[in-house]
Fold:
Amino acid sequence: MSDNVPNIVEIENVVKDYPLGKLSVRALSDVNLTIERGEFLAIAAPSGAGKTTLLNLIGCVDTPTSGTVRIDGQSTSELNDSGLTKLRLHKLGFIFQSFNLIAVLDLYQNVEFPLLLQGGLSRKERDARVREMVEKVGLTKQLRQRPNELSGGQRQRVAIARALVTRPMIVLADEPTANLDSTTGANIIELMRDINHAEKTTFIFSTHDPMVMDRADRVARMADGKIIDDGRGGAVGAA
Amino acid sequence: MAAAARSGPPEMASNSSISLGLLVRLSLRSIFAHRIKLLIVGSLLSFGTFLLVFGTTLLANVERAMETSVTGSLTGHIQLVSLDGTDQLAFTGPDAGSDQDLGVIESFPKVKEAALSIPNVKAVVPMGRHVTIPLLGNELDDAIQELRDAVDAGDPALTARLVRKSKRAIGLILDDYRRRLTLLSNSEEIEEAILDLEKAGSDELWARLETEPAEVFEFLETRVAKLGEGPSHAFIPFIGTDLDAFAESFETFTLVEGEMVPKGHRGFLFNKTYYEDVFKNRIARGIDKLHEARSLDGRLIDRDPALQLQVKQLAKFTSFVTRQLDPDDAVELERKLDELLPGTEGDLDRKMVALLELNDENFDRRRTFFYEEIAPKIRLYSVKVGDHFTLRSSTKAGYPKSINIKVYGTFQFAGLERSAIASAYSIMDLMSFRDLYGLMTVEKREELDSIRAEVGVAELSRDEVEDALFGDVDDAEEEAAEGDRFAAFQLPDVESDAAPGADAGAGGPIDIAERVAAIAGSEAAAQESQQETFTQEELERGTVIHAAVVLEDPSGLSQAIERLNELSAERDLGFKAVAWSEVTGIIGQLIVVVGAVLYITIAIIFLVALVIINNSMVMATMDRVSEIGTMRAIGAGRRFVLALFLVETLVLGGIASGLGAGAATALTLFLGNVGIPASSNDFLIFLFGGPALYPEVGLLQIGIGLFAIFVVSLLSTLYPARLAARIEPVVAMQAKE
Structure:
């Protein structure tokens, strides 16, 4: 796909059910949402409203029960596991609530890891890319430290560097500040915001932190598995 | 959405060619991050490899040592045996002691020619395995014989000395019988013996020696000699062979004493170790054994209960020295013992007992004393090199046969001096063997044929005889030779009885003339029939029981066996070729048992390792769900995860097995330098083919060890790796650090 597709993410009539024994629980109900390139979008909802499920669908770690999720024009339902893996590797970056750094790798290696998975770059190119990202998140002095030697904020910065090192179209962040104190959280959001401005990378993050919502271009609000406000001035999706 | 419709985005580069370097790096980090796993799994794999490599290396070395000791001394690499035999040839174990029906190889020259046509065959040695008993006198017999020789030679000084020696020996035996009389209630025989011994010790009898020597010797030989302590009637296992070919083909064959039996002569060569063990004076042999244990095995009498027991037992055999001494020697020895052991009370026997109270401090001095002062005064071996002695065996026909044969020397196989297998058999010429075994020589066969022709006797098979007796009379008449029909089946019938299991139709190996002679009680007649010299042609033309094939290159064993069997079938030679390992009997199969025990132990360890590694990896997978989920979320495919787990175990397996194999190799190298002592343990000496095993590192065993670990690692990780590969990326979103 190319930049001429205006919406980087298109969600149409998406339903997601999870089996629970013989029953099934509906996590998302007829969700519609479009996200433009370069947006800094917050998905705000109380716990259990379905915002992580929605991020999972956008992040291609899950597929909808019905409806369509298109990433850069590609419907995720049409891809097999290998296709979804490649899509995640090349077009998406993830920032997890619990940072999810690989414990046995040091800072540098954690950031380098997605590049190694991608392949195609020389050692020198990889090194330049990793150092550039580490510099952006301000951790050049901690290059050889293991995750357990870093603070929460530093870990989340590593996670941001790792998410951005492959130069993805979209970075998904699931409550990126939830495990951080307010100052560190604000710094992290500022960092994401700066990168969003500088790189034009689309940021989609879930949060229920009003301070974070304030920093977003747009806030889509969810309740009970539905988008109740897409942040463009009205409720979205039919009942 | 149907799975078939799903596909990968075509515009994106594939990440399937994941660098092995990344996997190895990740694996190493993961291994060292999980130290408990590293310790448990690593030690298990390491120990497994060590055991496998060291065990199989040791086994291969033991096998090689046994092979060398067997093939280099007795069997050659291949044995050729008759197809007619019903038993399997066995050189060791219980079967070797039994009367085996092995059939005979009728035309050895043709067999030899066929075998030598194979380039890898170095030599073919005709053989026959049998057991014999030497007919030996006791010390009194020997003393009386010496005396008789002196009287015959008319040497009064020697006669007088030997009379004193005999009287002394008789006196000592008399003391012994008087002691027995006090202990036993049934004393009639003892009283009679005492009367004879008293008479033999009286001056009156010896005064008659000059005037009536025949009567005196008759009394001594028939009434007195039997009262002496008899020698042990040891069985001598021996191989009848072409002695020159034997010595030449078995490269380590070494003549120790005496000389080789001259070509074309009958003669006997003792295996040195057997000769020492069985024919040497018991005290001298006991001292030798203690000396070997101390000097070769580094054992100490003071610390070794087994050696202390041997020392204690020596004291029981003083009579093996004291009874052999003449009075002058006895007096001299007693004086020397008084010098060596001042203050020892009692008679010569008591002083000998005191001499034999050996310990590490006095051993060397007393051993020197024994060999310098005592050995020259006694008969050190009951049969000496250069002596003629009589051997008696049971022939295949079941009657006893004796031959008188000269002992030309003793031999051993260099490097295998203490190998039980290599020391098992003595050797004699093939012609004498044929006499003892009851095989026909060419001349006897011709003689028998001429007798048959003379009396009009034909050789018939059992069927023919049955036909002649019960079947069609006309047929029998046609097949039978001319003459009396009764006589016609007499001889074959005798042959058939004489050789149970042997193929009477093939001519029968049994010498009928000898059997007739033996039945008539005329062993002398049989002995007279011995030819003193023979030609090489006569040696080879007669029947042999089996033959050893020595190869240039032992690694071509199976091909040589195959080719030999082909040649036998093509040329109708009636033999089959069997590998050395098949003729070593049940003892030879011990190696298989030892190997089986080792492999079962290793298999159990590996099975345990497999389960433990599997469990440990499953647990590791569970612990790493979040990590794997994260990897999956940021773009790692299932194959990457699968490969990651497999490489992780292989790297661990590689390091652990490398350490294990390294330790095994280091230990093997060390032991190869210092040797593993058999410590006088007969079983170990047998296994090691000598007093110590010097193992060599085997690349094959290291290869097998590493490969086995590779397989175990792979198998044990397959399930957990598949489990890990199934982890969905979505779990990363739920993960809590």
